[in-house]
Amino acid sequence: MSTATRLTDLQRALEARLVPLAWANLVANIGIVVTGGAVRLTGSGLGCPTWPKCTEESYTTHPALGINGVIEFGNRLLTYVLLAIALAFVVAVWQRAGRVRTLGLVILAGIPAQAIVGGITVLTDLNPWVVAGHLLVSMAMVGVCVWVLDDLTGPARGVASGAVRRLAWATFAVGWVVLWLGTVVTGSGPHSGDLESRRTGLDPEVVSHVHGISVGVLVVLTLSLLLAARRRHDRWVATFAAALLGVELAQGLLGYVQFFTDLPEILVGLHMLGAALVAAGLARVVVTTRRR
């Protein structure tokens, strides 16, 4: 069997698994947010003190680096899992012209780009503003994965009404402000990723209250979107807005509990998972206003 034939057979086999691969892209990108949070919450942000190598002498961790080195190096290895999934998806979708293939290439290109940003966070000793950018790019990748899934499996629908589209985009914009303010809160608090890394210098209590106010605005906008979509019989927008509202309320409750319990690591980790789900939900309501 020729190499070309084997490649064609591989592509056909992968194309038959296109939707599972799209879901795998989404789950993996959410997972990397959670594992990245684990790196910070365990103080392992500089477990590998340099980049792209783990140490000056080796690309892999060393026993002298202890458990922190294992955790940080393990998170780096997960990048290759994401890369493999994204590459398999691109191969599977390659024969399709149009947006899905383009979005697949965006996801594939975003993974090494994220690795570089992650390297910069290490080389800047976990500068909180760079770390924030690293997280937000991951959130954007989650949104692109949701867009891909909508193109492949989303429900048939018409274009949403003008008022609903405007509310969806306002919800999306404020949601991203909320996500950014969440990174500012984290960058001002105790979970820096390493005992020696710098903080933003902002008062954690003040920025937490500002973040909380922004969450309140987001909840009001999402509720308004839900009610507007129901009034105009935009069934699918209403459905996904309701799901997003549920995630926001759970996330808000979790945020207040962790604030008043001195930020226990497990709750902060769950809050980061919730942030990734919010990012997915924001993308979901916006793409659902398009015709499909």
Give an account of the 3D structure.
75% of the residues lie in helices and 0% in strands. It has two domains: 11-153, no CATH class; 159-292, no CATH class. It contains nine helices and no strands. The chain starts with a helix and ends in a 5-residue tail after the last helix. Helix 2 packs antiparallel against helix 9 and helix 5 (128-153) crosses helix 9 (265-287). It is mainly α and 292 residues long. The model has no long low-confidence stretch (mean pLDDT 87). The protein is flat and about 60 Å long. It has helices at residues 3-15, 18-41, 66-93, 99-123, 128-153, 162-188, 204-231, 235-260, 265-287.
Spatial shape: flat
Cα-to-Cα separation, first versus last residue = 41 Å
SS summary, helix count: 9
How would you sum up the major sheet? none
Helix/sheet category: mainly alpha
Q: Whole-number average pLDDT? A: 87
DSSP summary, beta strand count: 0
Portion of residues in helices?
over 70%
Order of helices and strands: HHHHHHHHH
Low-confidence stretches: none
Query: How many separate domains make up the residues?
Result: 2
- What is the rounded Rg? 20 Å
Beta-strand fraction estimate:
under 5%
Q: What is the oligomer described by this structure? A: single chain
